[in-house]
Fold:
Amino acid sequence: MKKHDRKKRENHPIMRDIISFSSIIGRYMMITKTDFIAFLDAPRHLWALKNNKLSEKEINVFIQHLFDQGYEVEEQAEKYIQNILIPSYKIDPDNVFLQPTHIHGNFQARTDVLIKNVKTNKWDIYEIKSTNDVKKTHKFDATFQYLVFRESYDIGTLNILHLNKEYVRSGDVSLSELFTVSDITEEVSKLTDEVIELRQEAFTTAQKNNLQSADKCIKPKECPCLDICHPDLPDYSIYDINRLSANVAKMRDLIDQGIESVFDVPKDFSLSKIQRFQVDVAQNNKVEIDSNKIQKDLSGVIYPLYFIDYESYNPAIPMYDGYKPFDQMPFQWSLHIQQQGRELEHFEFIETSQIDPIPNFLTELQKHIGKEGSLIVWNKSFEGTQNKRMAEIHPQFADFCLNMNERIYDLMDIFQKQWYADPKLKGSYSIKNVLPLFAPDFSYNELEIGEGATAMTSWFEMVYENAETSKKETIKENLLRYCEMDTMAMLKIYTILKYLIK
Structure:
């Protein structure tokens, strides 16, 4: 088995041919697997990548967290390959290549593992992915690799080595159960002709001087080269229309008509009911409030009111017994309690020890939530899912968790269902966007931690990394203030809504 054993690799007959060929064509334009994936995102992304025009974005703590998780999965996957996968082939280690690079024509690919199968006398390809399933992009990725490697290798199967979403940790991590292999050979075969055409388009795009004919991306918020894709992006654009980006054909239709502002969308353009209502609200520049529906919905809320919010961490590799890959691990809650005729109360919890946080999380929560009253949340799919999973992981709390779910009221529904629609929201129903409309002086902007991704990574730093005591205390205080802001924001929005619909 070889990873960085350059001398042995260069002595392999096929590798000698590759190195020689590479030296000849190295000075010409080359499309790598990374380039190809950028092209699939949007042709202009590839052009920006090849011409050093990508925006210099700061790698924030959340992006770094994703990198770190990817590295961790890769390290464990390499152990799986060495201790489980390769021995299963029962072959000479010289017929195993880790991260081999191959070049054919204008295309270059590197795969994670290439193994000679003694039963078929063919080479099997394995790609490591730090996900718990196979994505569409992974299949295009593997097809690109196949087309390059097949020129010098008789390829057998193409496989994705990824996390097993059904694995439940019990004791030490079991590599044989943590990972699973998905054979995508058949899918790759079906994609071959399409990828041959696409990669040639990518090669042509990379050499263009004029980008007028190259498609821009349809997700500006995620765009790595905004000045290239959307140099004149309107403040309220068609990309803000709810779920329209999921319909590429409709999006391209508007772009081809030269329409990018939501105010220019034709009245007869086909949109869903929700999308059309959002566009009409914007074009009419008028707040729409369905007081009857809001009043009816709020009438189901029962005192005492429990405004509650969770924060959680989702490690790729389970840290404690009972968890699956990427399971959320709730570590913090904030709770504002409003009883009729009594002063508002606030309680909070955060786990600071290196233990499974759920038992303490729920034990403390049980002290404050009675058997009656509505639990008011923002996006019940999150808190509801966590309650269900916590009941499964720790059955001793099942009755409490499932009872909470029976009493959940989702305040976000009023905005998601467009019973309250303000053009300033641009179709968003995020609490951070809704709050300024109801309490403009009450803002997340003053917080050191102002969103969930940073909260998650900050908690991990506080508990599991070697931060100084003073820094840990600062992180803890910032986390508490952030979670408290979420429940106070719900309280303010709820209170003002009740006043508006009287």
